[in-house]
Structures are given as structure tokens and as C-alpha cells.
Design a protein that fits this description.
By secondary structure, this protein is an all-alpha fold. It has 2 domains: 1-94 and 156-210, no CATH class; 96-151, no CATH class. It contains 11 helices and no strands. Helix 1 packs parallel to helix 5 and helix 2 packs antiparallel against helix 9. It is globular and about 55 Å long.
Length: 210
């Protein structure tokens, strides 16, 4: 059984999010009538370049096996579904608030995954209940509500690019919490992502947000 390094784990986990802006850029003009601007394209190129520098795919792909390839494929499909979530939420912004969208998303997810909770013993559940409560409240309930609420005021293309701050944030948190070193390529990559986010943020401000 192969154990993946931290860089490989980051590559797999990030593969679900960095294709999403590409999907959104291609689909938003068709589904949401959002035009593709030079500013959004420039921000997209900057941010994706930053992500590539952070995850360093060349160093990982040279030792890629079949299971790793399956993981990346699942990540790419997940990126498409993530893009669909952005587009759907943006489409529903006039009918549902961000809180309502988050509530329905959590309710439907709960119904689907509730049977799987029985696979965990009561003792394990009790030992980790405080962490599960935090997981449900902060990244899930609060995170989804803030995300869907923000999508009501930000173009889908811009939101997908700003979301690329996630891998940069993961590296910073890994340095603070896990004491993992930050390389020069990671610093440059994070800077490019930040510049890309600032570019699309400035574009949104010039158009009044929505």
C-alpha cells in the first residue's frame, strides 16, 4: 500500500478546485450570459500558474501509479461538479438567499449520507463528537452560508478564481499548524494567486460588485 507525501496529497486534494475556473469560464457565458473579459482571463492565467507552482505537478507525475491517476481523475470530475455548484448558486441568487441555499444543500446531503453514519461505533462517535460539531458548524454551515451569500454579489468567473486562494491558505495553515516548510516556489505561487484574486476583485468593484 503506497503512502502519499504531503505534496502529493495537496496535489490530489487541489485537483478538484483548480480546473473549476476553466469550466466556469467556458460555461458562464452560455448559462449565465457572463462575458469573458481580458481582466478575468488575465486573473485566471495568473492564479492557475500560481496553483501549478504550489502543487508542483511535474515532481509528482513522474512517479504516478494507476491509483494516483484514478485519484486525479476523480478530482477533475469533482472540479466540474464544483463548477456546476458555482453556476447553479449564481443562477438561483434571485430566488434564494445564501442561507437558504446552504440550508437546502445541507439537508439534501444529510439525507443522502445519513445511512453511512451507522458504520461508526458509538464509542468512536462520542470521542470525536466535539470535532464533528466544529466540522459541521464552521467549514460546513458557516462556510457554505458565507460562500453562497457571496456568490450573489460576485460573478461566477470571479468567484471561481478567488476560490483558488484555498491551496495557498492550506500551505500557510500547514506551516503554522504542522510546521511544514514553505519553499520559494510556493511563495511565488501564492503571490500569483493573490494577484489574480486582487485583479478580479478590482474588476468587481469597478462594476459595482454584481
Amino acid at each position: 500500500m503506497r503512502l502519499y507525501s504531503n505534496s502529493e496529497n495537496l496535489n490530489i486534494s487541489t485537483s478538484h478546485i483548480y480546473p473549476a475556473p476553466i469550466y466556469v469560464t467556458l460555461l458562464a457565458p452560455l448559462l449565465l450570459k457572463e462575458p469573458v473579459t481580458r481582466r478575468s482571463l488575465s486573473a485566471l492565467v495568473l492564479s492557475l500558474s500560481g496553483v501549478i507552482l504550489i502543487i508542483q505537478p511535474g515532481a509528482v507525475f513522474q512517479d504516478m501509479d494507476s491509483m494516483y491517476a484514478i485519484g486525479l481523475l476523480c478530482g477533475l470530475i469533482s472540479g466540474l461538479l464544483y463548477a456546476c455548484m458555482i453556476l447553479t448558486s449564481r443562477y438561483l441568487k434571485g430566488c434564494y438567499t445564501g442561507t437558504a441555499q446552504a440550508a437546502w444543500a445541507i439537508i439534501i446531503t444529510l439525507v443522502i449520507f445519513l445511512p453511512y453514519s451507522a458504520a461508526i461505533s458509538f464509542g468512536v462517535l462520542l470521542d470525536n463528537l466535539h470535532l464533528l460539531i466544529l466540522l459541521g458548524l464552521l467549514p460546513t454551515a458557516a462556510g457554505l452560508t458565507l460562500y453562497f451569500s457571496g456568490l450573489a454579489y460576485v460573478r461566477a468567473q470571479n468567484a471561481s478564481i478567488i476560490a483558488l486562494l484555498e491551496p495557498a491558505s492550506a500551505v500557510v495553515l500547514a506551516f503554522i499548524i504542522l510546521s511544514q516548510p514553505i519553499t520559494s516556489s510556493v511563495l511565488v505561487g501564492g503571490g500569483l494567486i493573490l494577484v489574480g484574486a486582487l485583479v478580479v476583485s478590482g474588476a468587481g468593484a469597478m462594476r459595482g460588485g454584481a
